Please model this.
Amino acid sequence: MALVNHLKENYSYQEVVQLSDHLIQTEYGHKRIEYWDEFDLLEWHVAWRDTCQQPPHVFVDRMIRTKDGRTAIPYEHQWITVHDHMEGAVPLQLEENREAIWGAFIGNMLAFGEQTPYSASTQERLIAPSSVGTGGQWAALVREGKKRIQQSEQLTAWFSKLEPPTLPASLSIDRGYSWNGLFFFCPRKEEPQKSYAPLRTFLLLWMEEYGTDSLKRLLDEMDDFHPLTDGQGYLLLAECLKPYELQGVREGKDVRKEWEKARKLVRELSGWLDEKKKVSDYATSSTTS
Model:
């Protein structure tokens, strides 16, 4: 009853029935409760969810406001937030304008992630090729992995004055849902990463699901909202070059499919950046001649 009374005191609910630790019934339907131990993490989630959603195209699982406009309330040494419980939500299947909608959303997310400070983890999962071994059937992959690491480090050094954005760790196609005819993005309640690793994972899944032509259109849309050709795109390429698949080799897994997908993503992204640079160079020479 303590939680029920606390919610009634702070939110515009006259009727509250606690169904579980994370679910309540109100006169406005079911609502979900989230518990937060770190206020800084809560503040970051509030800020990016409020900033990056783009009605009427993209909605984000935001925090319902209290009577006096707060996004969270203290409760038993924690903070709690209230959210819509999206009953009947189904995985999103966009047939039209998917690149424009997702591209604008991610572009805004990149812009926010560059401008908003947060001491996020880099979540580095890269292992040294030497720890895998240089013999056996994976010798060629290990050699290529070493080369990819060198290329990644070189790109990072060239653009050392830039830093990658802070992104939601759960940036994934499968976090997009259709609810009441609207596109909702539902992030997990987790610490963000100051890295392009979440976007790398997203692009790999996108390319597998929709193909390389759609991937390039998606990059075009992202670039329109947040330029990738000013150096940030090369930091993304540096991330994509990292041979994370070597972890699977060390664990005895067959990673040839994953390796080829990563190689293909690097090839497509590199080609897209080269083409953008040619267009930019041509435009510059035309205006100065």
Remarks:
- Residues 256-288 form the longest helix (33 residues).
